[in-house]
Structures are given as structure tokens and as C-alpha cells.
Write a structure and sequence with these properties.
The structure holds two protein chains of two kinds. By secondary structure, chain A is an alpha/beta fold. Chain A is globular. In chain A, helix 2 runs parallel beside helix 3. Chain A is about 40% helix and about 20% strand. In chain B, about 40% of the residues are buried. Chain B has two domains: about 70 residues, Translation Initiation Factor IF3, CATH 3.30.110.40; about 260 residues, Ribonucleotide Reductase, subunit A. Chain B has a four-stranded mixed beta sheet, covered by helices on one side. In chain B, helix 5 packs antiparallel against helix 8. Classes of the chains: A alpha/beta, B alpha+beta. Chains A and B meet through helix 6, strand 9 and helix 9 of A and helix 2 of B.
Chain lengths: ~270, ~425
Amino acid sequence: MSPTSEITVGAVAYHPRVVTVWESFRDYFRDRGIPTDYILYSNYERLVQAVLESSVDIGWNTNTAFVALERQLGDEAQILGMRDIDAEFATVIVTRRGETFDRVQELADRRLALGSRDSGHAAILPLYYLEEQGLRAESIRKIIRFDTDIGKHGDTGDSEMRVVQAVAEGEADAGALGDATWARFRTEGLPAAAELEVSWRSPTYYHCNFTALPSFDLELAARWQAALLAMNYDDPSMRQAMTLEGVRNWLSGNRSGYKSLAAAMERESAAV
Amino acid sequence: MNPHRLDAELLELGGGLEVLLQATLVGIKPDQQVDVTVLSRGTALELPGWARLHGHEVVDELDRGAGGYVVRLRRGHGERVLADGVAGHHDPPPIRPGGELHSSDLRGNGGVPEMVPRDVGFVPIGAVAEKGAPQFDWRLHRRDTIWAPEVADLAEQASGEQWDASRDIPWETARDLPEHIERAVAQVMTFIAQNEYAALYVPAGFLPQMHPSYAELLLWLSSHIYDEARHIEVFTKRALIGGYQGYALASTELSLHSLLAEHDFTAAALLLNVLGEGTFLDLLRFIERYAPDAATAAAARLAHRDERRHVHFGISHVRHVLANNPEQRAMLVHSAEQRAAKLTEMSLSPLLTEGLMILAAGSLRPRALSEGADAVRALMQTMERNRIRRLRSAGFDEIEAHLISDLHTPNLM
């Protein structure tokens, strides 16, 4: 089959394991009669452009990338799927033990550490939800940003690690990060995480999704989605790749979980 | 159905809560729910993220004030380990009188599998293999082509009879022998050490081809290799301690080279264990008897003890193969012929026979040398007689045994 008859998926190479994941997924889709190749980008901005210019058919986007894409498109894109972990995503704010807070207003006189500024879960959404609950960013005593791996939208987890360390070491008083990242830090025994506790948990939102332009062939999109949703974590040949991708079940996804981020990014761009 | 209940008290993530949760969730069915009570709000707040990471879901959270927080978890689908579950309690292997636990008792009623898939990897005896592991390709994966009924016990003996070539030999006794005696010892020791290299490389070559499911054979081959390493060590040390060098003879090398060319496990066992090491048993006895010093005698005695095990394995293995597959008889005779065809020497190197005669004579006096020559002649006869006896014991008939013995290398190994 010629390369042009393949579906192309763009993804961001935030870690070498992305190659392992997509080599496996490539075999998987080929074996199901829907040849799929992948193209890796170094950052989500390029990936979004690639989808908009139809250089790739589908983008494996973060929530931030998805919202940015729809804003540039000025239309609703097709969502072809997301991981189970992407539904019910939440941000937590951690503090040192004994320094927890009940109302977000109590954060006003503290130093708040945030992850990379392009990370939905570690920077954009925590500020948005705090404001929703009555604490404006301007009234927080100090915001300390760890803008590492810009362009990767927080995928590497590096900025969240720095947030946790900053709070544990007293450089900040509170820090925001993804709830699943936090659970991983805790159960993996990260020493800094043992000294902190969760004081606040945001409402839930969606994270990554597979995005295609509205013009992408609907029938082809449906076939590709059906193959994606059939991927089984109990299939020994897929478990390693799915574990590396952090997925146990693929869900069809929808746009209901992106409203808060869209509003937050709208607000951010208005403020600029 | 009412949810299960779990009181986690003060536990939190990273501090043991995840262990308690997993232990609870493994005991309930997918979609069943468990109410987890925790004392701190922070812990209640971090449970949804943990649950999602592990394929479960928090469906409700309740603040009970002083009573703590109740987080209702729904168990997800999907197994943590992709394998048939481990069975419940089984009859553990027996402990023998004296408190010993033997490898041959580990298998239980299942016995040793006749064949194992070539691609299965490192799964210890009794363990349940998870699916999705990388695939291997083990060449030796059929029991009856590699097995010897006593292999586990032989490996057990090998562990129990380890010795130390640096400390268990009275090295100081090997100094200051007369020059002609010491030169003879150095040559004989060099010859033996040279042969022990081949005795190491042959089992070492088969080890990485051996299917891990036959753990008894891995233990056996490893002990065999280690024994030979120590033999190389002890005979090299004895060759050098008296201050003279021996020759590593090309004819010896040729014989050993042809031994390494054998890639069939059973043929190699016949050529190395039964014929080569079998013949060496008689040689080592001879050296122990005529050794001019206690160090040489001790080295020969300790090596002999190890070689006996190796010969035992070889005979037992070949007998097992011939009993299960009589057609192998022709192949084994052929392998002896093939090797003989590559050997150009007609007899043991004169440097060796001379060295052995001097050892047996204890001096260069004519009368003593005459007795030494008689002793070496007798040794050669003993070697042949015992080779035929071992071949018979391995399952060959009288004619085959004579034929194979005659084809055996004049180099002894």
C-alpha cells in the first residue's frame, strides 16, 4: 500500500518512549486494515499547525493544543478519542503538612508555584479555577512559575516535579500539579512528596485527545476510531505500549470537558 | 450490592495506603465498589488521581467530619498481571532430614516437562509466566535430548563439594623438587590445564542454548563450568609453582579444537564427559598415586572428585537418550568417527608419556624408569578397559563400545 493511502497521526516527542508507543500502534492499526503512520514534532504548536495545514490527518493533542487549534480554526474539530485517564482529570494544590487551607482565599498571602505556562493542568487551569472560586491571580502574593519544556504543554512532568520540590523546600508555600502526577510522585516514593499534602482539588476537565479537521473523511475517521477503541489492555502484544502511553481504555471523547480551558485561554489572551 | 468497606485509618499514598487498596481490590470483581475510610482530607483528595492511574474510579466522596472521609471506589476492568492467576496454597516441597531442601524435590507431582515452548523466557520452577514478555529462542527445549535423571542430585553434590584452589592445596610442599622431576610435573600439569579449558568451553557453549525451564540443567552446567575453572586454576598453579614451564602442545590443541566443533549436546556429552573426562579419571588417579609432592596429589584428588560427577552425568545422559531414542546410537557412533577423522596424531605426545614415566619412576635411574614405563603402559590399558566399561554402562553394546573406544583421541580428552 502506498504511503499516501495511510492515515497520518502527528504526536509530540516529549520522551523517547513516544517512538516505542507509536511503532507499536502503527503495527496495531496496520493489522486491523487501517494503515496508520506517525510523524513526530518537537512541540505542540508545530503539531497544531500541521493539523491545520493537513500535513497530518490527526493530531494527538494536549487539551491546550486542542483548544488552541479550535481557536485558530474558528470551528469545531472532530474529536476521535481520548484515554481513560484524560476524562475526570483534575489539578491539585499541595502544601506542607499542617499548612493546609479550607478556602482558596487563604492562598492570597502565600507564594504559589505553577508548572510550565503552557500546561493546562499545572498552570492555566489552576489559576482559572481559583479565580472561579474567588481568588484572582493578581491578589496572590507571589506566583512562581517553572517554565521548563515549553512547547511540551507539561507532558514531561518536569515542571510539576519542580513545583513539588519548591514547596517542600520552602521556596513556595503551595503548588499546583496534575492529580495523577501527584499520585505517581507519592506512590513512587518521591521524598519531597512525602512532606506535603493535598489541600485543594479542582473540578474535573478533559486532557488529551485525537483531533482531526472537520473536513477529514467522516467514514475514515469512524473506522479509525473503532480500531482505536478496540485496543485492549489485556492484549499482551499491546500492554507495554498502552502502559507507556498511560492508557487502559480508549474512550470516544467529546468536547464537554474543554469548556473551562477554552474560557481560561480566552481570558488569558484578552489580558495580553 | 452493598459496597465493601475498608478502614484505612491514618494511611496515605506512598505510606502504605496503595498496598492496602491493591490488596483489597484484587479480592473483588470488576465494577464492584469499596468504601474507603481515611482520616485526612488530603488523602481523600488524592485518591481520585490514584484510582484513575490504576484503572479504577472514584464514584463518590463523603465528608463524615470527625469520622473521617469516605471515598467510594469502583474497581476497574483489566488484570494487573496478564497471566492465569497464581493458585492458592500448594503443598510446599519437602524438607529432608537434617533440614536440607533439595532441588530435585522442587517439581512436585508435575514432574519435568517433556517439552517447553522455545520462546518462553526466565520463569523459575513453579512460577506463573506473565504474557507479553519478550520472546527468546532456546535451541535446547526438549527434555529427553538434554536430561539425565540424576542431574539435580549431581548439581546438589557439586555445591556441597566445592573447594578452593588457593587454600586447600599444601602449596609449600611443591617447592624444591629435583629439576628433572619438576620439569616432568610442569609438562603434565600444563597438559591437564590445557585440556581443562576445553572441558570448560564445551558446557559453557551449551549453557546459553539451554531452556530456562530446565533449571536443574542450568545449575548442573554452571557447576560443571565452575569446576573446570577451578581445575584450570589449580593445574596452572601447580605447573608454575616449581619454577619451570611446560609446553601447550599443538597436538593437544588439535584434539580439543575438534571437541569444540561438536554442536550436538548428547554427542558432546559422549565425547567430553564419558570418553574425555572418563579417561581423565584414570589419569588423575595415576597422578595422585605417583605425585612427587602433596600439592600435586591434592590437586589430582580434588579434581578427580569433580570429574567423577561429570562422568556420571555423561553416562546417565547418554543412557537416557539411548533408552528414549535408540536411533541416536548411529548418530553418536558417527560423531566419534567424525572427530577421529580430524585427528592426525597416532599416539599421545611423547612429551606426555615421558613426563608420566618420570613421575611414576620418581627418578631417571634405569631400573626406576623401566618400572615407570610399565606403570604408564598399565595406565593406558586401564584407560581403555574403563572406557569400554563406561560406554557399556551408557548403553552401547560390546561391539559399539570397542569401536568408539578405539576411535577415541590419543590425546585422552
